[in-house]
Amino acid sequence: MQTSTRNTVLLTRSRTAVWHPCTQMKQHETLPIIPVARAQGCWLYDCDGRRYLDAVSSWWVNLFGHAEPRINAALIDQLQTLEHAMLAGFTHEPVVQLSERLSALTGGALGHCFYGSDGASATEIALKMSFHYWRNRGRPAKTEFVSLAGSYHGETLGALSVTDVALFKDTYAPLLRASSQVPSPDWRTAAPGVSPREHAIACAQALERHLEQHHASTAALIVEPLVQGATGMAMYDAEYLRQARLLCDRYGVHLIADEIMTGFGRTGSFFAHEQAGIVPDFLCLSKGITGGYLPLSAVLTTDRVYEAFYDDEITRGFLHSHSYTGNALACRAALATLDIFEQDRVIETNRKKSAQMTALTRELAAHPRVRDFRNTGMIWAFEVDAAGPDFGRRLFEAALKHELLLRPIGNTVYFMPPYSINEEEMALLATRTLELLDAA
Ligand SMILES: *Cc1c(COP(=O)(O)O)cnc(C)c1O
């Protein structure tokens, strides 16, 4: 790719001084690093003015496009009053309001909101809280966690322990606590002729067998509701969540919904678990929570859990903290994000957008090399047959030349655009991806 001097200088400096995430840095001897000079709406612009459609919402965090005027205005206003104050022993309007509004979005079922700084810290919080709840309730033997095959819950040691993605996990295996994995209801793994719902029920039976045997030592089941993202956008029937909720109740095991990716409208409802008509014991939120502006995460839980920690004894309390817990700027960005959901009737609007995008991808879905084309809410994914080695990297590079930011996972290509994507941009995304497949 032709790069200007300004682009080249910045990417060379970045390669030297910045250790980029989830990257074998040596690959950047040939693979370009894109210097982002600015961003607007769905587009990132490099130092040379070249543009890239952010079809992955900057790693799944952006909801309403870059430089959203209403979020910008809220942050500028917040900057004039309070940027940050510690949350132990202190509080402020944005954190109180955000907690109240998030709780209201669960119908009040999850009335207590604990804050972290990123997704992985939310997972850590939920795991520790669940274990500590059982300990406070006189069940200290409940120390184990169960997750789904192919699950992703973050990459700090505790979160990685319940993650099941070999590429991220295997190297660190000696550092991790053992956890159990039960079969994923991912409908692609269903036997021929078995419907996604039937497959979900069969997988729930496997979960039941596990819990039957191990409930006395199991604290919680952690799941990504409806879509398992990082393993390659595995999608499954909501029936699994209904059954998992029943089983967790029957066997006295917590249900942790990791909605770090699926929350905030991504799957078509505000929270994905709503589609199963259930409420989890813990709800982990991050990514879209600030509209993609600032790092923030939250774990919501029930009165029942909260009360188990409420005591004269200090160590029965949840003695967990992060320095930036409840950061006022991040909370204010989150409040502005919730305002936009109301002002723009986002869930309703997205329903139309989702149908439009699905119609625009009809030809792509029918492409001879495309397999298992699927869609949930504002996520589309498919596998590419005969992809060959290094497919993801090659498609990423080819897409950049066609103004698209795509970041395949193995041979899975997915679209997870900002909700603000318009019809023209959706058409561009669908057509250019089709052209890329034809050319590849
Ligand atoms: C991204 C993600 C995480 C981890 O969040 P980070 O902010 O990257 O630590 C955890 N769970 C799910 C489902 C995610 O998609």
Provide an overview of this structure.
Helix content is 39%, strand content 16%. It is α/β, with parallel strands linked by helices. The protein has two domains: 5-67 and 345-439, Alpha-Beta Complex (Aspartate Aminotransferase, domain 1), CATH 3.90.1150; 72-343, Type I PLP-dependent aspartate aminotransferase-like (Major domain) (Aspartate Aminotransferase, domain 2), CATH 3.40.640. It has a seven-stranded mixed beta sheet with strand order 4-12-11-10-7-5-6, with helices on both faces. A four-stranded mixed beta sheet has the order 1-2-3-15. A three-stranded antiparallel beta sheet has the order 13-14-16, with no helix packed on it. A hairpin with a 4-residue loop joins strand 2 and strand 3 (51-54). The radius of gyration is 22 Å and the shape is globular. Residues 118-120, 123, 152-154, 224, 229-230, 258, 260-261, 286-287 line the site of pyridoxal-5'-phosphate (PLP).
Question: How many structural domains?
Answer: 2
CATH class categorisation of the largest domain: Alpha Beta
Strand content: 15-25%
- Please list the strands of the largest sheet in the order they lie side by side: 4-12-11-10-7-5-6
Supply the CATH superfamily name of the largest domain: Type I PLP-dependent aspartate aminotransferase-like (Major domain)
Quick summary:
With 440 residues, the protein is of the alpha/beta class. The chain has helices spanning 5-17, 57-60, 69-81, 93-105, 119-136, 157-162, 166-169, 196-214, 239-251, 303-309, 328-343, 346-360, 362-365, 391-401, 423-439; strands at 36-40, 43-46, 51-54, 112-116, 144-148, 180-182, 218-223, 227-228, 234-235, 254-258, 282-285, 297-301, 370-376, 379-384, 404-405, 412-415.
